[in-house]
Amino acid sequence: MKYLLVFLLIISCKSEAITENTQNAAYQITKSISYNGISLNVIIDKPSGNEFDVLLVFHGTVLSDSNILNAASTTLEKFKGILNRKDIMIISVAYPQENFLLGDNIVQAEAALLWLKFKANQELGIKTKKIFLAGHSQGGYLVTRLNTMYETNGVVANAPGPLNLVHRCQLEENGQVQNSSVCALLKNEYGTTTNNANAYMQRSLLNFTNNYKSDILFVQGLNDTQIQMYSWPLFKQKVTDCTNCKNRNFVEISGAEHTALFDSQIGKDNFNDFITQH
Fold it and tell me: CA-CA distance, 232 to 224, in Å (whole number)?
């Protein structure tokens, strides 16, 4: 019987089935979720027990939607690796990107957050307590935008972007950097940045610097790419000047690159302090 229970536990960790026998056990599963007709996959890393604070995390840009589950898994492990606490459930969102105009996938990001708020307890047989959002790169863009829409217990954004799609896509139009599907889709929809700069700016993170509903921590490596650093000072200033935002915290790390939060002890320490203080 002992060996049978162990076998059943292993099976449960590889499927979506959550039974009464395994509700208290630790597991990691990939689960299809849905909220208000929007469906997507998440990877859930649950500690033992049934009552948790939850960290909802979002990966960065990928070339194809065939890569988003792998990106979600990698991002989950990255955040798990820097968390000092082992009693937090981590849910990593495999949000789509392919054939989406940048920013349109905020609908899927929103669905994941609302599923966590209103459906996860019943579907997983758990009780969620505090909810934190965290994202890297385009994931940082999404959690920053979500913070203009919903209140949580706190938000962490590492190297969030794109900050300035006018600048980024203009470089591609001028042949100064390699072309990307992000700018190609925008060009097909709106024309060039010269013809319709406002449409590009409306989707840039520079356009989402007000009405933050929860405290937010921004981590930025100062040796990030030129495209990121070109607009970082302006973004920081606009966020700092916000008059209707909750607390904004900036950690800028000299010598660190795009993955500063995960590579730098300064980033890790500030991340854990932020979670502890909230």
Answer: 10
Which run of H or E residues covers position 156?
strand 154-158
Which residue bears the tokens 């959690």?
Answer: 143
Q: Residue 134 carries which side chain, given as an amino acid letter?
A: A
**Helix (H), strand (E) counts: the chain:** 11, 8
| Stronger pLDDT, 17 or 131, i.e. the higher one | 131
* Residue at 90 is within a domain: yes
pLDDT, tens digit, 9 for 90 and up, residues 112-153: 999 999 999 999 999 999 999 999 999 999 999 999 999 999
Q: Domain of 136: which CATH number? A: 3.40.50.1820
In a domain, 26, yes or no: no
Taking only the tens place, the pLDDT of each residue in 203-241 is: 999 999 999 999 999 999 999 999 999 999 999 999 999
Q: Which domain holds residue 58?
A: 33-164+204-277
From the list 166, 159, 235, the residue with the least C-alpha distance to 194 is: 166
Residue 180 lies in a domain: no
Number of independent structural domains in the chain: 1
